[in-house]
Predict the structure.
Amino acid sequence: MEYRRLGKSGLKVSEFSYGSWVTFAKQVDVEPAKEMLSAAYEAGINFFDNAEGYEQGRSELVMGQAIEELGWSRDSYIVSSKVFWGGPKPTQRGLSAKHVTDACHAALRRLRVDYLDLYFCHRPDLDTPIEETVRAMHNLVLQGKVLYWGTSEWSGQQITEAHLVARSCGLTPPTMEQPQYNLFERQKVEADYLPVYPMGLGTTIWSPLASGMLTGKYSEGIPQDSRANLPGYEWIRDRLASADGRAKLDKVRALSQLAGQVGMPVHHLALLWCLQNPNVSTVILGASRLAQLTDNLAALEAKALMTPEVMAAIEAIVDNRPKGPERF
Ligand SMILES: NC(=O)c1ccc[n+]([C@@H]2O[C@H](COP(=O)([O-])OP(=O)(O)OC[C@H]3O[C@@H](n4cnc5c(N)ncnc54)[C@H](OP(=O)(O)O)[C@@H]3O)[C@@H](O)[C@H]2O)c1
């Protein structure tokens, strides 16, 4: 495992990290979670991703209990939470100073920690002035409850505004963004954020396998035991069945052939492709069982196979390089 700086901060994050969306509290409880967290930690993963919105906070409860029972030293791992979807009441969602503060306190309790290493605004909130959110984050930083704050799925313009507000008001700017990034989703990371990286932005990228599509397992139908069959995740099935989904599955078949020629499975190719981008600080793995996690971790052994020729062959198949940044 190698470690990368999170943007211009001094924090070193493992190139692969592990997240709990869909899995913790939905597909797995504390004991299997402990097994997977432990395997990740032993392999050198030091960042574990979570959010108040994952299973209405229950994912954080599972992770908090699991990590406490594993007895890890607090200075040996990085844990995150995200604020936005805390509950149905108007004060329980969004990025008002109140909800940002309440959600932080609740996450600290659920994760059983004194501070959050990373705290993300899970989405932009058009109903709250960016200055209010930046100030709320700054106060949590001053109180020692949050070390680094960031955003998720914000536009380049919104991140820039947060930086400008922080600079003009003497507040703490965001350190990192958590965007989706994979062979099918490239716009933000490869184009929109190009003007923002020089401010020191790090990225903790999500869904590197496009929710499992890039394992190739959806190419012959939907396996019974996959997230696409879970209640509440019907949208994954719908996406796979759409014209766009079918076109992507064709590309996965072509990528699988290429991966076979290179000497690795297609999901290793997809994960290692994300790591080739120097603006990616860490690739957050998802895994609903131990075998998936150990399989995905094994991709690191094949790093040397990702030659410029292989990258070019991938590009020729996906053929979706972003044309340019969003227009402000
Ligand atoms: N900020 C955000 O808005 C946001 C959004 C989404 C995710 N995230 C973060 O990013 C993390 C990763 O996202 P993700 O879970 O969507 O990642 P992903 O890698 O795209 O998908 C992971 C899922 O694919 C399947 N899978 C993974 N490896 C496999 C393998 N080797 N063989 C077969 N199936 C495999 C598993 O699902 P099944 O076994 O159920 O099929 C697994 O849970 C999340 O846990 C979360 O922390 C953040």
Summary: The first strand starts at residue 3 and ends at 5. The longest helix spans residues 243-262. The CA atoms of residues 145 and 250 lie 47 Å apart.
